């Protein structure tokens, strides 16, 4: 069987059959041994009783009825021979044996002999005048008792086997049923629409696996939805410059606008289009290609000052104040990626700030921290964990790529990137990087 349920079920049957056979074998050996010891002890007791009877009278006073053997709740009688020095039987439980010569081979080691085709267990004792008494009992009696005990034991073992089998079958079904439900739910899963949810798992390992699959399916559906929204946003953003290029190209062709003005618009919109495509390609490359980022010894204060200068045109256009607070710090870092994080933070803050943006660079143990604060509306608490997700866009967002790139850079560098509330009332974006030893 190739299914887990079949394998567990087969293993359960094999183990139970092996356990039953082993139990029956060992139990039968134990019963035989106990009965043999009991028979030997009772034969010794009856031997003592027989000698007392003979010594109290004569050999003829002894009879089979005097030699009682009790096994469990049943009573049997032992038999006996009294023989002289020449092994002639002078007294016996069976009168027909008297006068005959005892012709049996007795084993003094295990106290067994064969009489008339039957195996006998015996014990013997010497008497006065060269006589010897032998007390014996047929082994068939022990086998009969052993068979009764074994039958009762087998019935109890079979009942136990059936109970354990039913419980095991229920356990196997109960254990593998969630896996079957999980298999059916996964086979029906389609991220394009909300399908029937996965069964709720319990605290067991299988339950945890089900919960993990459920969480994974939720993430897949969320990512699929984000991809759709991203494609819609990107299509819209790409459509705007393309329409501008097409419109001005037609206007130049129809001589509605001058060639110089039309070419200027086409150039600006083309550059904007190329920049958007480059950012998209960069994000895709960072998620799929593990390229090596070269470490360069740079002055981080100068890097922040350069970011500050690049943001000057946008500051003048929106009439926003920008401030810089950077410590002097030189360190070997992936300079291009760190610069990109600072630029994306600043560009994001400029879109949401009302009057002021602050760029801060401070030293931390074994590294540095870049913070950008603004006095805008901030990010709702419930959205702060999602703001770095790919395709996430706020009210003033464009494509949802910039902060996703920052998150990818942070993950690759082992840095900590966060979004919290700013002391200025808006949002604070932080990037804390520490050197790896």
From TrEMBL:
Residues 233-437 form the Histidine kinase domain. It catalyses: ATP + protein L-histidine = ADP + protein N-phospho-L-histidine. Its main location: membrane. One of its GO terms (molecular function) is ATP binding. It is found in: Cell membrane. SUPFAM superfamilies: ATPase domain of HSP90 chaperone/DNA topoisomerase II/histidine kinase, Homodimeric domain of signal transducing histidine kinase. It holds the Pfam family HATPase_c. It is an enzyme of class 2 (transferase). The chain crosses the membrane at residues 6-27, 149-173. It is a multi-pass membrane protein. It comes from the Bacteria. Residues 173-225 form the HAMP domain. Its EC number is 2.7.13.3. GO terms for cellular component: plasma membrane. Keywords: ATP-binding, Cell membrane, Kinase, Membrane, Nucleotide-binding, Phosphoprotein, Transferase, Transmembrane, Transmembrane helix, Two-component regulatory system. This is histidine kinase.
């Amino acid at each position: 069987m190739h299914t887990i349920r079949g394998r567990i079920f087969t293993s359960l049957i094999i183990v139970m059959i092996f356990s039953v056979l082993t139990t029956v074998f060992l139990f039968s050996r134990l019963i035989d041994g106990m009965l043999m010891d009991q028979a030997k002890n009772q034969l010794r007791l009856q031997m003592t009783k027989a000698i007392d009877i003979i010594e109290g009278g004569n050999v003829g006073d002894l009879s089979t009825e005097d030699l009682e053997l009790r096994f469990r709740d049943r009573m049997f009688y032992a038999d006996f021979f009294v023989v002289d020095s020449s092994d002639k039987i002078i007294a016996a439980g069976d009168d027909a044996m008297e006068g005959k010569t005892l012709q049996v081979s007795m084993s003094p080691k295990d106290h067994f002999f064969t009489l008339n085709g039957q195996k006998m267990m015996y014990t013997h004792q010497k008497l006065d005048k060269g006589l010897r008494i032998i007390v014996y009992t047929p082994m068939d009696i022990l086998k009969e008792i052993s068979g009764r005990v074994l039958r009762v034991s087998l019935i109890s073992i079979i009942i136990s086997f059936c109970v354990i089998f039913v419980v095991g079958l229920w356990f196997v079904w109960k254990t593998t049923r969630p896996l079957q439900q999980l298999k059916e739910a996964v086979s029906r899963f389609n991220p394009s629409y909300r399908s029937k949810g996965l069964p709720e798992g319990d605290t067991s390992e299988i339950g945890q696996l089900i919960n993990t699959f459920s969480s994974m399916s939720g993430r897949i559906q969320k990512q699929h939805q984000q991809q759709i929204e991203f494609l819609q946003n990107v299509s819209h953003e790409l459509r705007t410059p393309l329409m501008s290029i097409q419109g001005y190209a037609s206007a130049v062709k129809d001589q509605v606008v001058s060639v110089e003005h039309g070419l200027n618009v086409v150039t600006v919109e083309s550059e904007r289009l190329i920049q958007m495509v480059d950012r998209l390609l960069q994000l895709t490359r960072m998620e799929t290609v593990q390229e090596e980022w070269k470490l360069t010894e740079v002055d981080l204060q100068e890097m922040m000052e350069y970011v500050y200068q690049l943001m000057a045109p946008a500051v003048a256009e929106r009439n926003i104040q920008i401030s810089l607070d950077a410590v002097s710090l030189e360190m070997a870092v992936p300079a291009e990626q760190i610069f990109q994080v600072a630029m994306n933070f600043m560009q994001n803050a400029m879109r949401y700030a009302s009057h002021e943006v602050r760029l801060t660079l401070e030293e931390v143990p074994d590294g540095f921290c870049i913070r950008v604060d603004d006095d805008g509306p901030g990010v709702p608490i419930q959205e702060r964990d999602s703001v770095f997700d790919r395709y996430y866009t706020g009210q003033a967002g464009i494509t949802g790529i910039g902060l996703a790139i920052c998150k990818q850079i942070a993950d690759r560098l082992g840095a900590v990137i966060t979004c919290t509330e700013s002391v200025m009332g808006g949002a604070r974006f932080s990037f804390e990087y520490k050197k790896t030893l």
